[in-house]
Amino acid sequence: MHHPARLGIALTGVLTVALATAGCGTQGTESDAGTSAARTSVTSCGRQLSFAGPPERTVTLDQSSTETLLELGLQDRMAGTANIKTKVPARYADAYAKVPVIAPKIATGEQLRAATPDFVVAGSADLLTKDRAGTRDELAALKVPTFVSAVDCPERQRAGTSPFELLFSDYENLGKIFGAERRADRLAAEQRAAVAEAGKTAPHTARDEDRPTVVYLYSVFNGMPYVAGGTGLPSEMSRIVGARNAFDDVKEDWPEVSWEEIAKRDPDYIVIGDLSERGRPGDSAAEKRAAMTAHPVVSRLAAVRDNRILEVPGIELDPSVRSVHALGMLAEGLKGVGHARHTH
C-alpha cells in the first residue's frame, strides 16, 4: 500500500521536527545525575518515597521507564531492565547496551530480586503485583522504594489534568530523585513546547460534533480489532489537535471492538499503530491495512477509500518519552490530508 504524496511529505517533515523536540537534544555531554547528596522525598502514586542519596541500582520494569531514564542520562545507575517490546531508538543504543536485561518479558519477583535493586520504576501499577515483580508493600519491606508513573494512578482522573502533564511530572520527580533536575526540567520544557506546537493546528471550534473523528487501531488479534478507548493517551492527543477519538465513550485504554462497530462510527481518519517489531500476527501496519481493505463493510468507509490513514509507531500511543513524536505526526498528518469533518 502507498500513501498519497501529500501525506508522505507532511509526515517526513514532522518526523524531523518531532524527533528534535522529543528530547533527543538532552543527550548532551553534560550530566547532573547524582550530583545531589541531600535527602530527597517525592510522592509517587500515593506513597512518599525518601532517598538519602541518588539510587545506584535501579531496575525499570518496562520500556517506557527504561527510555525515560536513558533520556535523563541515568544508564550508569541502572542495574536492569525488563519487558522490552520493540527496539530502543538509535540515540539510546549505546547507553542501553550498558544495562542488563533481567527479563525480556514481564519480570518475576525472583528475577527482580536477583538484580539486587535499590529502586524500582514502573510505567504501570500492574507490573507490581504478587504474581509479577512483587507488590509495592513486599518491596518496601525489603527497603526497595517503588515509583509508578503518575499516568497510571487514580490522580490522572482529576478533571483538567492532561496525561502529558502527568508524564512531565514523572520526569521532574525522577530528576529530583537522581539529582538530575536540569536535564529533567529541560526535557519537560521541550516536550511542553512540542505539545503546544501540535495544538496550533487545531481548528477553532468548541462543538464536539464539528471535530473530525479518529479511530486508533492498535492491534488485530484473532481477527478482532483493538482500538483506543476513552481512558488512553490517544483521547488527549485527539483533543490537542482538535479531533475526537471515535471510541471516547468506552472507558478502557485498549478495548476489543468489532469491525462492524468501527464501520458504524464511520471515522473521518484512521490511525494505525505499527507494532511490526513485536511480531505477533496482525501487528504490522500492512496487515492492519489488509484487514480493513478485505472487510466487506470497513473497506467501503470513506476514510479507507480515500486513504485518510496515518501510520505511527504503536508504542508511542501509550504514554512515554516518545509520545510527543506521535502527537506531532498526528497534528501534521491530519493537516496534510485536510483537517475538516467530512459529511457522511
Automatic annotation (TrEMBL):
<dbReference type="InterPro" id="IPR050902">
    <property type="entry name" value="ABC_Transporter_SBP"/>
</dbReference>
<dbReference type="InterPro" id="IPR002491">
    <property type="entry name" value="ABC_transptr_periplasmic_BD"/>
</dbReference>
<keyword id="KW-0732">Signal</keyword>
<dbReference type="Pfam" id="PF01497">
    <property type="entry name" value="Peripla_BP_2"/>
</dbReference>
<feature type="signal peptide">
    <location>
        <begin position="1"/>
        <end position="22"/>
    </location>
</feature>
<feature type="domain" description="Fe/B12 periplasmic-binding">
    <location>
        <begin position="57"/>
        <end position="342"/>
    </location>
</feature>
<comment type="similarity">
    <text>Belongs to the bacterial solute-binding protein 8 family.</text>
</comment>
<protein>
    <submittedName>
        <fullName>ABC transporter substrate-binding protein</fullName>
    </submittedName>
</protein>
